[in-house]
Structures are given as structure tokens and as C-alpha cells.
From TrEMBL:
<keyword id="KW-1133">Transmembrane helix</keyword>
<dbReference type="GO" id="GO:0015031">
    <property type="term" value="P:protein transport"/>
</dbReference>
<protein>
    <submittedName>
        <fullName>3299_t:CDS:1</fullName>
    </submittedName>
</protein>
<keyword id="KW-0812">Transmembrane</keyword>
<dbReference type="Pfam" id="PF04144">
    <property type="entry name" value="SCAMP"/>
</dbReference>
<dbReference type="InterPro" id="IPR007273">
    <property type="entry name" value="SCAMP"/>
</dbReference>
<dbReference type="GO" id="GO:0032588">
    <property type="term" value="C:trans-Golgi network membrane"/>
</dbReference>
<keyword id="KW-0472">Membrane</keyword>
<feature type="transmembrane region" description="Helical">
    <location>
        <begin position="63"/>
        <end position="84"/>
    </location>
</feature>
<feature type="transmembrane region" description="Helical">
    <location>
        <begin position="143"/>
        <end position="168"/>
    </location>
</feature>
<dbReference type="GO" id="GO:0055038">
    <property type="term" value="C:recycling endosome membrane"/>
</dbReference>
<feature type="transmembrane region" description="Helical">
    <location>
        <begin position="37"/>
        <end position="57"/>
    </location>
</feature>
Length: 185
């Protein structure tokens, strides 16, 4: 495997080496890694949409300040965790043909999808501006808040779809190598 060992990511304070085209040789594997990285970047967009929905909910209802705080925490913590736990484990699995990295990816991707469902459901006090907030906003005739919640629902739905599709495609790639999820048999 080509690996100069030079740390190049993140650009503002390099801590790790991350060069999909140089480190991952197979085109199919590169495509998976690139898609995973784009999903990581889209996570910021989706969680910004969620935070915007939470801010508008607070302005409208004046009782979801905790939701804004959680929305900020999600925005600051979840994408970096997603990069290092989910994306980078897939990257390492593809780069090094590592079954363990793939298995870690599958576990974290499962949690990632569950978190997305939590945000999509959208309990205001849970920091999610999704379906629940959407329904209450339109029920109470707060159309601006409802529109922001609708945006959140769309963004999180896209995030979930892309994550689930990546999970399926990575599993297919994993199985094509003849590997099994559970060691043994």
C-alpha cells in the first residue's frame, strides 16, 4: 500500500493521513470511501438544518432552549465522531483489507442510523427538529417553524438514506471478499 505517512487531515491541524486516491487502490473501494466522506460532510449540513429548526422552534414556542443546546452539541460533536469512528474505520478497512475495521464500521453505522432516526422523529427536548416538531408547528399554525422543521426532515431523511445505502453497499463489498461478520464458522 502506498503510504508516505504524512499527516494531511484535517487541513487546519493535520492529525491523520487521509488520501483516498493514493491509499485505496481499487476503484470500487475508492468509490465507497469517497461516498463515505461525502456523507460525513453532508452530516454538517443536516445538523445545521436541525439546529436552524431548533432555533426557530425556540423563537416560536420559547420553551426549547435545551433543544438548541443539544442541537449545538450534536453539531460540534457528532460529525467529528462520525468521521473518526465510522468513516475512518471504513477507510482503514478498505485501505488495509481489515475485517475488524469493517466490523467496527458496521456497528458505528448502525448507531449512526439510530441517531438519525432519533433526530428525524424530532423531539424538541431531545434536540431534534424533525417530524414531531413539524406536526406540532403546523398544528399550531406556526408555518415558519413548520417550514424549518420540514427542511430538517428532508435533510435528515437524505442523510439516513445515504447512510443506509452506504451500509448496504459496504456489506456487499465485505461479503464479496468472502468475509463473515462474525468470526469463526
Amino acid at each position: 500500500m502506498p503510504d508516505s505517512g504524512d499527516k494531511n487531515w484535517p487541513p487546519f491541524r493535520p492529525m491523520i493521513r487521509h488520501d483516498i486516491e493514493a491509499d485505496i487502490l481499487l476503484d470500487e473501494a475508492q468509490a465507497l470511501a469517497k461516498r463515505s466522506y461525502l456523507i460525513f460532510l453532508f452530516y454538517y449540513v443536516a445538523l445545521l438544518g436541525n439546529l436552524a429548526a431548533m432555533i426557530v422552534q425556540e423563537i416560536t414556542y420559547k420553551n426549547v432552549l435545551l433543544g438548541i443546546v443539544l442541537g449545538i452539541v450534536y453539531l460540534l460533536i457528532v460529525p467529528p465522531m462520525d468521521f473518526f469512528a465510522r468513516h475512518y474505520s471504513l477507510y482503514q478497512g478498505l485501505k488495509n483489507d481489515s475485517k475488524i475495521s469493517f466490523r467496527w464500521f458496521f456497528v458505528i453505522q448502525g448507531f449512526d442510523i439510530l441517531f438519525g432516526i432519533f433526530i428525524l422523529v424530532g423531539w424538541s427536548y431531545g434536540g431534534g427538529g424533525g417530524i414531531s416538531a413539524l406536526v406540532y408547528s403546523f398544528r399550531d399554525k406556526h408555518y415558519v417553524a413548520g417550514a424549518f422543521s420540514a427542511l430538517c426532515v428532508i435533510l435528515i431523511s437524505i442523510q439516513l438514506f445515504l447512510s443506509f445505502k452506504l451500509w448496504i453497499d459496504a456489506h456487499k463489498y465485505f461479503k464479496e471478499k468472502g468475509w463473515k461478520l462474525w468470526p469463526g464458522k
